[in-house]
Amino acid sequence: MNKYTLSRMLAVPAAVLLFALASTSVASALSTITTSLDFGARGGNVTSLQQFLATDSSVYPEAIVSGYYGSLTRAAVQRYQCKQGIICTGSAASTGYGRVGPRTLAAINASIGGVVSTGDVSAPIMSRVIPATTTSSATFTWTTNEPARGTIYYSSSPLPVLEGAQGVSATIGGQTVNESGFGYNHVLSVTGLSANTTYYFAAKSDDASGNVQLTWPTAVRTGQ
After folding, report:
1. Sign of torsion, CA 144 145 149 155?
2. CA-CA distance, 78 to 217, in Å (whole number)?
3. Average pLDDT score over residue span 65-88
4. Which of 51, 84, 88, 214 lies at a C-alpha separation of 20 to 30 Å from 176?
5. Neighbours of 112 (CB within 10 A)
6. Residues above pLDDT 70, as percent of the chain
């Protein structure tokens, strides 16, 4: 089952939004959640929440681990809350329905100690993506901690990022260039760009098990 992650790209390499869950061929424990969460949240706590919810297909059949608390994650939290008898009506604002508030947070963390994930659930960990531009092209270089296949998304307009539907990864708009094989070192070039123009880019790495890490879109300008 595919796992997905998002992280920041280029300018703020330390501000990684999502850390892949370390896995072995046997099992690895899930991480506890350290704060309340609501729709629109991003980061490592959202990753931990999604990984926990994904252990129950009746709660989170999409099992998308994107690090972004979107509509699919909210629906999964609502199903979890109903199943646990926490709350099953109202809204996040009125009753906490669909929000990881204190009661839901406590229930999840109480369960996490006995929950494990098996198999390869780790997305590739990407290094900082380094761009190099000319007047008509941009080349992107990065590495991964395991063999992966790289993709660059690009557009002259801001790239939309969607959480994805059932069985589909978090999706990014724009045009793409792709690697055909798997490796540790990734170099992808985009050609035919206009000079002195701002383009928006994001990078993706997917491993042989289908685990995916995406970088957050950012802007790069071509030379004059």
Report:
1. negative
2. 29
3. 91
4. 51
5. 18
6. 79
- Max alpha carbon distance in the chain (Å)? 61
Burial class (CB in 10 A: 0-12, 13-18, 19+), 34: exposed
- The backbone region for 43, taken as left when phi is positive above 0, alpha when psi lies in -120 to 50, beta otherwise, is left
Q: What is the pLDDT of residues 86-131, one digit of tens each?
A: 889 888 888 889 999 888 888 898 888 755 555 565 778 899 999 9
Q: Is residue 32 within 8 Å of 94, Cβ to Cβ?
A: no
CA distance 54 to 224: 48
Tell me how far apart the alpha carbons of residues 62 and 73 are, in angstroms, rounded to a whole number: 9
d(CA 43, CA 50) in angstroms, rounded, equals 11
Nearest residue to 100 via CA among 36, 33, 55, 52: 36
Q: Count how many Cα atoms sit within 13 Å of the Cα of residue 114 in the half-sphere of its side chain.
A: 3
Rounded distance, CA 161 to CA 164, Å? 9
Residue 47: what pLDDT? 87
Chain Cα centroid distance, residue 26: 24
Distances (CA, A) of 217 to 50, 142, 208: 22, 15, 24
User: Looking at residue 113, what is its pLDDT?
Assistant: 72
Provide the whole-model pTM. 0.52
Residue 18 predicted with pLDDT over 60: no
For 166, phi and psi rounded to 5 degrees?
-60, 130
